[in-house]
Amino acid sequence: MRVLEGSFVAPAKPVALVAARFNSLVVDRLVEGARDGLVRHGVSDDQIVVIRVPGAFEIGAAARRAVDSLKFSAVIALGAVIRGDTPHFDQVVSGTTRALGQLSYEANIPVVYAVLTTEDLEQAEQRSGGKSGNKGWDAALSALELVDLFRKIETA
């Protein structure tokens, strides 16, 4: 029996971080966590491209363009949607998740979802560098592992 698993190997092409500007207090920490995870695993700063979009809902469209450009080894989606008093939260989360999920299945490269969906700012802060870790870091490691795994699957 053969088992294929990815390793944390720096890819040949750059990695795209598609990050929302909305809730920047949280998202900037996710971007820094992702950057730190990539750099610590051999990706140089000039191989990390941050693509800024207005909000979480726009991440899907920009991620699609990044995938279609064929310039990147992986796309990491970074955002934060914090519940408010209106149903807008559910609409943004649903649309963003659907767009990124579909793209993930269709793309020939990894598309990693690290859009926080939290009840309040405190939960978002905990997941972007607090006691719950940094989901940007986690997403970066997932992306590296998947890039290597996809390469191994293609050459198996």
Overall morphology:
globular
Alpha-carbon Rg, integer? 15 Å
The poorly predicted ranges are none
How many domains, in number, for the residues? Answer: 1
Q: What is the annotated CATH architecture?
A: 3-Layer(aba) Sandwich
User: How would you characterize the largest beta sheet?
Assistant: 4 strands, parallel
Give the termini distance in whole angstroms.
13 Å
Computed structural class: alpha/beta
- The CATH superfamily appears as Lumazine/riboflavin synthase
- Beta percentage is 15-25%
The SSE order reads: EHEHEHEHEEH
Number of strands: 6
CATH overall fold name: Rossmann fold
Strands of the largest sheet, in order across it?
A: 2-1-3-4
Please explain how this structure is put together.
The protein has 156 residues and is α/β, with parallel strands linked by helices. The chain has one domain (15-147): Lumazine/riboflavin synthase (Rossmann fold), CATH 3.40.50.960. The protein contains 5 helices and 6 strands. The protein has helices spanning 24-40, 59-68, 88-106, 121-127, 135-155, and strands spanning 15-20, 48-53, 74-82, 111-118, 128-130, 133-134. The protein has a 4-stranded parallel beta sheet with strand order 2-1-3-4, sandwiched between helices. It has a two-stranded antiparallel ribbon with strand order 5-6. The longest helix has 21 residues, at 135-155.
